[in-house]
Every structure is written in C-alpha cells, then in structure tokens.
Amino acid sequence: MKPEGDQPRLLRTGAPRMSAGRRGRSARHAESEAVVVPDIEECGLGPFTGDDLQALAQRLQDPRWTRGTRNIYGLEGLLTALLVLPLGLRLGAWLPLIWNEGGWKVPVALRGAENSREFLDLTIGFMRHLDAGFRASPARFMSVVDTLAGGYGVKPAHAQRAWSQGFALAVSEVRHLDIPLEPAAQNSLLAIAMLQHPSSGPMAPAQKPRATLEKAVLTLVRLRTSRGPLGPLA
Q1: Which of 1, 135, 167, 189 is surrounded by the fewest CB atoms within 10 Å?
Q2: Chain centroid to CA 38: how far?
Q3: Torsion of CA 164, 174, 202, 211, to 10 degrees
Q4: What is the largest CA-CA distance in the chain?
Q5: For position 201, what pLDDT does the model report?
Q6: Which residue ranges form the domains of the chain, and what is each CATH number?
Q7: Which value, to the nearest 10 degrees, does the dihedral of the CA atoms of residues 172, 97, 197, 71 take?
C-alpha cells in the first residue's frame, strides 16, 4: 500500500525535499547526546516484513536528515556491498555512511534512544533480510529497485543509480578490495558500477538493467567469503 500525502513524491526524488525554513535543521547533529556504538548482535532480530521495509523507506525521507542521506535504494546497495564483499568495516565506520557522515555524529533524525534504536532495528533487520535471501538454496535477491520503485513511479535509472552509489560508497571506505579475480566477479562489479552511468557502455542484447543487477549480486554472493557485519559464513 502506498503512503499518503506527499510521501510518494519524496520517494520519487530519492532525497528529502526541504522548505527554506527546514534547510538549517537538516545540517544539524545531536552532538550533545551521548553516543554509544550499538551491539549489532542485539539488533534487528525479529521478522522483517513488507511494512518494515515501507517504514524504513519513509524514515529515510525525514527532512531532518543531513544532506545526502541514502534513500532506500542507496541503503540497499550499501548493505549489499557489506554482505557480499570482504570490506571488514565496523559498525561505527559504516553506519554513519547512511547519513553521509565520515565521523560519528548523531543526526537530528536519530535523536532519542528509542528513536535511534527503532531505526537501527529496521536497518539491521533489513540487512538480515537480505542475508537470509543470500543464504537460501538457491540464493535469491529481489531488489527494492523492483519492489518499491515502480509502485512509487520512480524511474528505474534513478533507483539503480542510487543503488550503485550506495554500493560504491561502502567499497570506497577500504584501500584494498581483496576478492577472487574471477572474470565473473570483475564483470559483476563493472555491471554495478555502470548503473551510475547506464549510457556509458554497451549491454548484452535484450538484457534489462534490473536483471543485470540481480545477476551481478547473486554472482558476488556465490563468491563471497563472509557475511560482513553479520559474521562468518556457516
């Protein structure tokens, strides 16, 4: 079910739209609050439902976030990179990337212990949901580019670009990316990178961009050696 009011418009843009009176608030952080890096093992343990996905998508459109905060498409790209590549980033390093911060500053949108814990449960729950699909037999991946973008009238190219940018952001945090040098892995990374500039290179005949994303992710899943923040593979 689609949200009401202006919310579909917000999801179409991929970033919060702010009135002139809200722009100052969007850049503030709750720096006076005590910051404790949460224990990921205690977060997001319940079932992650379609309603949870909608709630997380809407929370990322809150105008109180800092400028450049990931939307739901970018968040999925970022979480996917953490799960399928051996990036080794700690929670305190990758979580602030969601709201476009290099350091640990708490944005106004996360002010309050209950509020921040709810967001963390949704985010880690989303990560666990993605990982559950990756660990299934056979592995499965249905991106929010497919499940949400069309329902909100988002152009696939815009959603794919945001997804690829989130993925690339996680990769950019490490100096060396040690992955199997199989052509399949390299081709998958190239396919994901090309989603940022879909007109910059040729695609296979009759191959749709979203099919390319699904195939690329599942190829990296097959080659992965860890589950990133969720720990080693069983």
Answers
A1: 1
A2: 19
A3: -50
A4: 55
A5: 53
A6: 37-228 (1.20.120)
A7: 160
Question: What tokens does 138 get?
Answer: 């056979």
- The pTM for the full model equals 0.83
| 20: number of Cβ within 10 Å | 6
Tally the residues of the chain: 234
The residues that bridge with 6 in the sheet, in sequence order, are none
Closest among 203, 131, 202, 194 to 165, alpha carbons compared: 194
Residue 92 φ/ψ, nearest 5 degrees: -65, -15
Give the contacts of 195 (CB within 8 A, at least 6 positions apart).
160, 161, 163, 164, 209, 212, 213
pLDDT of the residue at 151:
74
185 contacts 219 by C-beta, under 8 angstroms: yes
Q: Look up residue 179 and give its amino acid.
A: I
Q: What is the pLDDT of residue 234?
A: 78
* Residues lower than pLDDT 50 in the chain: 1-28, 31-34, 205-206
Contact between 100 and 68 under an 8 Å Cβ cutoff? The reply is yes
Structure tokens given for 99:
């709201």
Strand partners, 232: 226
29 by DSSP, 3-state: which?
A: strand
Taking a C-beta distance cutoff of 8 angstroms, is the pair 187, 162 a contact? no
Token pair belonging to 146: 């497919």
Q: Are 213 and 192 in contact (CB under 8 A)?
A: yes
Q: How far apart are CA 14 and CA 5, in angstroms?
A: 16
Q: What is the DSSP letter of 97?
A: G
Are 215 and 162 a contacting pair, CB within 8 Å? no
Structure tokens of 66?
């800092």
